[in-house]
Structures are given as structure tokens and as C-alpha cells.
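Chapter review: from sequence to fold.
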Amino acid sequence: MGMLKYVENLLGKNEQILWRARQHWIVLSANFVINLFIFVVIWVLYAAIGGLGPGSVGDFLLNSRAFILVLLLIPIVWFGWEFLQWWAEEYLVTTHRVVQTEGLVNKHTKDSALEKINDITLNQSVLGRVLNYGDLEIITGSDVGTNILRRLAQPVEFKKTLLEQKAKLSDGEDLGHRKATTPASEEEDPLKRIAELDDLRKKGAISEVEYQQAKAKLLSKL
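The C-alpha cell string follows.
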């Protein structure tokens, strides 16, 4: 619930999540195989020690069986940590931007306004097409330049949602929707509306051109 609440707190006013995704589960496969191998080796060692007969060396190893059982926790805890890290990393398409959040303890967020996205490239291998994952390269006009979402699950759906929402913003549909959902009392106060639009501009929800055009219209009402 805490991770979900963190994502919800990132949203601006009237901003909605259209698509949310994570990396494909295949990114955990290598870690799972390694930890499974370690687990099996430790368990075989534990079983082998149990078959030793009495003797100085045998008695010492038998007394070490409890310690070996504790070692079994290492691969379990290791994989559990990797799983939680994977779960904490999310990729969102909202009505205004693309958001990437990562980190289980220390959170890191990267977002790109939809208006600033210039191009999107999707790369999928044969296995990626079969298992439905791929690398999505988002090219923007910001200082960040390029943002690569590697081994993204359901990348085609993610890309379609992003492009459809970007097209709506370009056509002015989403801006019109935001104005339509604004209470009449707020529309009657041009200065308050300008402040709200400035806040959206700073968050990257609307472009500088949209802000200046809306500001000019509101100032004409004073």
C-alpha cells in the first residue's frame, strides 16, 4: 500500500494514470536460477553431512548442521530483496507525462512531459515478442534527451497508450477536458486560474505555449 500511495502522491490536479507497467518477470530469472542453485548446493551439503558416521570430523560436521540450515536463508533473502526492488520500479503513462519510479527505500523518480516527447523507438527480440517484453526508447526535447525503459512488460500497449494521449494533447482535447472539469467558481477568478496554470507548467503538464495563450485570455477578462 505504501508504494501505491507514493505513486498517487506524484499526480497533479486532474492528472490520471492511463497505464502502469513494470519490467518483465524475465529480469528476475537469472537471479532466481543462481539462488536456486545455491539453495540446492547447501541442501545437498546438509544431507551429506547427515549421512556421516561418528568420528572427530563427523561429529564436528554434524554439529555444524544447524549453521548450514541458517545458510539456506541467504538465497531466499537475496531473491526476496531483488523481487521487492523489481516490484518497487514502475513505469506510468498519465494524462500529462511518462513517470518512472524506482527504489525500495530511497525513491528516485524520472518523468517526461508528453508534449516534449519527439520520438519513440521499440526494440523487441524474437524471445521478447514471444514473452511480450521489449526496450522502449523515449526521445525528448529536454536536457535528459533519451530515456530507455528496458525489458518493459507489454511494451506495445504502453507505447500505444502514450501515443494516443500525446495525440489528444496535441489536438487540445485534454486541455479542453481540464478546463471543462474546473469548477465555475475558479473560472471566475482569472488570477487564481493563472496561478494554477503556472503550477501545471512548472510540473510539465502543459507547455509554455499553452500557458502563455491561456494566460493572455485570462488577463483579458480583468
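Two observations follow directly from the output. DSSP finds eleven helices and seven strands in the chain. Residues 182-222 form one domain.
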